[in-house]
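Problem: given the chain below (184 residues), write out its structure.
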Amino acid sequence: MNDEQIRILIQAELAGEIRPEQEAELQQALAENPDFQAIYDEERRLGRLFATDRASIEPPAGLHERVCAGVLARATPRRRFEFSRLGPVLAIAASILLVMGVSFWSGRRSTSAGADETRHGILERRDQIVRELPAADRAPVEALFERALERLAESDARHETETGRILEELENEINRRLPGRSPR
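Solution.
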């Protein structure tokens, strides 16, 4: 057993938190090594000295009351948030969202050009592959490409519809929150 382990066992024993099997190990180590016994005796002496000192210390008069008053002062509820101040903040936030939405929607329109390029690339690839196939094998491959183009168109339509719905909801919310305007 090394010095660190002995010191830990000594502290546990002095705190009254040592298990019986650890107590046996500690007693054996103390009996075998006079240096460990000296450490134990010194720790025990210091523990008694601190216990005596702590018992003789009196807290200042009124300390308990001051601590309780400080805790209560910090625990009192703060003033509630006034939602009437929230209106202008929400209007600004909604405006920012509207600008971002319009920017996204505008970007989406330019992305439609990207979708057109994708369609064009798919058609070119279809034509290239179909030219290499015998006439009897072309129909299933063409059908495969047609289905891919249909799925691409469906995806574009869903995205356009969703974007329009989101922008309309945003505009309605802005109109609802701003004085003098009504939702569409």
